[in-house]
Amino acid sequence: MNYLSEKHQQLEQSQQSGFMKWFGQLSMDRKAVAIGLSLTVGISSAAMAWLGTSSDRIYFCLKTPQKTLTCSDKNGRPFRMTPFYWSQWKSDGMPRQVVRDSATGINGLVKATNPYKPFWAFGGFLFFALAGWMLRHCQYEEKQRAVFEDIAQKRDAAKAEMAARSELLESYRDVAVAEVQLQADLDLIANDRTVDIQKAEIYAHTEIEVTQMEASEAIFEAQTAGMTEEQKAQYVKQLREMKTPYLQGTQTLQGTIDPNDKVTGSEPGAIAPQDNKTAWVQNLVKQTALIWGNQGGGKSWLARYVVKQKKQTGYRIIVLDPDSNRAEWRGVESYHSWSDIEHQIRDYVKELEERLKTFNNSSLSEEQWRQKLWSEGKALSLICEEATTYSDFIKDAELLEKFGKLALTKSRKQEMPLTVVAHNNTQTCLFGIKGLHNLVSKMLQIECLAEVDPITLQPKSTGRAKVKLDSSNEWLDVILPKMTAKISDFSDTATLESTPIPPIDKATLERIYELEFNIGGKAEDTQSSKNKLSPMAQKLYEYLTRTERVEADVREFKSNFKVNSERFSVEQIKGWMYEIVGADMAEWIGEGIIKLNQI
């Protein structure tokens, strides 16, 4: 028996007899024999107790006045009594009419036929009770055994079900591994074919360039036949300064290929050169963004690259990373325990609400308010690593929901952008918030793509990603920044460990010049003058200065800017904005956002 406690065992054993302890130790067949034997003895004793008489009897008769003897009552039952009562009656004064019945026994005395009848009756009762006691004990033990047998059957059934599931999962795993291996082999073959095609394209393009160069040299020699070296140089200079149908306004070829005629700004890296395939990363600097993807896709490395860019821009960086420590985030403010992370989230929500309240009660425009935040050093960016686990360890669900809603809707204009790193782009992975599916689907997202190594079968980054811009449903293929090691030092003296962009040298510019216009010769060093604005760019600049805009976002003023009742697309306006920036009249501060230089 399973006892609840030691005291329970003591009480139970104190209430149990030694005979029952001995009986409980017997096997089932011996218990059945004991019960049967007890029942047999009890039945036998009861039968013996039923037979015969247990005491002597004296039969007597009564003399009637007619001198006759009456030996029985009206019901025919004989007059009799025990010798004890006969002697007692005799001493008390027995009537003379009472005489013994000589016809029955010896002088009316009949001896007892079963003098031990009470003992037989007691024995029958005792053995019947004993058999019932033992039977009740067996019934109690059988009831307990039935409970344990039921538990054992359920346990065996559960084990069998688990074994079947384990076997099924093992089969699924084998199929999944086979599929991954097959896909890896197919990707490897496809990559090999792609490399072969790219090599062939490069070889063909090289041959075309060589042929064009040879043809250009022949044409140039034919065009300059009979000219002196000075005349040739003057001819080349004249070609460079002439206008072409491909240029606008007062632009010249020399001004177009001048390496100094590039977009510059006060903020480092606001707009990357056009040949920089990672210029899209600048979208992550000032906007709230979600970086997600499978394990090994490069999410954390990209987040660290963005943190470096944010700090160079001037943001105060706060990193929330439960799976890291301060040594991994040197040079920035970082928190790693769940209590610290929850405290920072609470402070972020409080600060954002206070900024919204202050801005709503002020008379400043949005541009002036954001400039004020930057001038006061209040530009702040929060980095949430491993956001998928926040809802599991931070039990204040109301705080997380409020944090998610404010961060996704109100953070950018208050210069408090949020960068979230998660395993997926679902609401469950994004702090467990609910009711914001449309907002999450429209926010700036970057999916880092991973692939399975065909040898180690471990996930690794492909170096590629997909970007979905804010308020867009189109996913664009981009290249991730190349880094030789994970960035862990974000101090001002540390540099990004990425592949630098080589500058365009003079020889390359000469090569572009020759291939574009099919002319030969060497270019002379000439200084380009500052480009003037085209008529439409000039009208855009006048509109921005007339509306007293300091920062101009193409998405905000697009619907209001028109010329002769004609509206323009975002791409057209961006082209004129490039001209304004190229004329050193403004600088880029974000995607589609310029800041006009104060005169």
Description:
This protein has 599 residues and is α/β, with parallel strands linked by helices. Helix content is 48%, strand content 13%. The protein has 17 helices and 16 strands. It has helices spanning 6-14, 18-25, 28-50, 83-93, 117-223, 229-241, 253-257, 299-313, 338-360, 366-375, 390-393, 397-410, 437-442, 506-517, 535-546, 554-557, 570-582; strands spanning 57-63, 69-70, 80-81, 98-100, 109-110, 289-293, 316-320, 333-335, 380-384, 418-422, 444-452, 459-468, 475-479, 551-553, 586-590, 593-596. The strands form three sheets. The protein has an eight-stranded mixed beta sheet. Strands 1, 2, 3, 4 and 5 form a five-stranded antiparallel beta sheet that branches. A three-stranded antiparallel beta sheet has the order 14-16-15. A hairpin with a 5-residue loop joins strand 1 and strand 2. Helix 3 (28-50) packs antiparallel against helix 5 (117-223). The longest helix is centred in the first third of the chain and has 107 residues, at 117-223. It is rod-shaped and about 195 Å long. Residues 243-274, 493-509 and 511-530 have low confidence and may be disordered.
- Which structural class matches the secondary elements? alpha/beta
First-residue to last-residue Cα separation: 97 Å
Helix count, DSSP H or I runs of 4 or more residues: 17
Rg of Cα set: 54 Å
Q: Tell me the helix content.
A: 40-55%
Average pLDDT metric:
79
Q: Beta-sheet strand percentage?
A: 5-15%
Number of beta strands:
16
Report the biggest beta sheet as strand number plus sense, adding barrel if it closes.
8 strands, mixed
Low-confidence stretches: 243-274, 493-509, 511-530
User: How is the largest sheet built, in terms of strand order?
Assistant: 8-7-9-10-6-11-12-13
- Note the overall shape: rod-shaped
